[in-house]
Amino acid sequence: MRKSLFIGFLFTFLITVGQGIPDDLPRPVLRELNNQYGKNEFKLIDKSLTKQANAGEKFYSVKSPGQHGVKGYLHIGRVKTCRAGGCSLSENSATATEEFDSEYFDYFILYNSDFSVETVKVYNYQASYGHEISARGWLKQFEGFAGKSSLEVGKNIDAISGATVSVYAITEDVKWKTKLLQEAVQH
Questions:
Q1: CB-based burial of residue 28 (10 Å sphere; 0-12 exposed, 13-18 middle, 19+ buried)?
Q2: Which of 35, 23, 19, 13 is nearest to 119 (CA)?
Q3: 70 vs 8, residue with greater confidence
Q4: Could you give the count of Cα atoms lying within 13 Å of 20 in the half-sphere of its Cβ?
Q5: What angle do CA 67, 63, 16 make, to 5 degrees?
């Protein structure tokens, strides 16, 4: 029994590695890709963008093995937010993003081939307040965003009492990452 489980695990692992799926891909991201495109029916091609804010952020093209064209795009990133009580540096500081006392959350954006947001999910929320932004219903507000319209908290993005910093942080990040992706791929 153990031997067959081990062989099954090894076989699945080797297929995953052979399909162009990075070893460090977070499990919730892999789960969503499998739901969207079918289990092991995709491969990820790393897209290095020069304007990425954090070293841990990644952009990928999502392709079908053996087919031409792109099925979509994936962004995996981390958003830093201020701790309860405020930030220790002003926004104008050149080192504000590196040195301020921050909390963070990890999330991903799945885009279709036309750069329109299909899915936004927060999978690792490491801040004291604001976890309400992780709710699937609230995150659905970003679906369909392609950078042509505006995203404004209080207008087309619902504000959340107690999660003000996180709401603004993820809204601005979705706008920025959508713009970065479009500029990188279209030029």
A1: middle
A2: 35
A3: 70
A4: 14
A5: 105
